[in-house]
Fold this sequence. Notes:
The protein is α+β, with helices and mostly antiparallel strands. It is built from 3 helices and 6 strands; from the N terminus they run ββββββααα. The strands form 3 sheets. It has a two-stranded antiparallel ribbon with strand order 1-2. It has a two-stranded antiparallel sheet with strand order 3-4.
Amino acid sequence: MTTTASGLWASGSDRQVTCIACGETLDREDAREYDKHGDRWDREGKTFEYLCKPCYRECCHQNRDGLEETLVAADAGRADRGTFLARYCELVADDVEPNRTES
């Protein structure tokens, strides 16, 4: 048995999910939850996407603070590749600029 986002008990084998990376359909109990906001522990009012275990193992598990907002701001999935990459690099470069004080 697993707990759903709403707190109800559900049998994992009763629920099929689809891996967002490869498209495989599998039992929920054989998948890993993915929360695009990076906060899978705050469950109230959330729905999750899922990854199969092989795709989950291939994911980078580094801190993603601000990543989703940066992707949205760079028009990920809407702009062509070149435009997206230029916008993304510009946004990321702004984040790593050291704070400088003028003398």
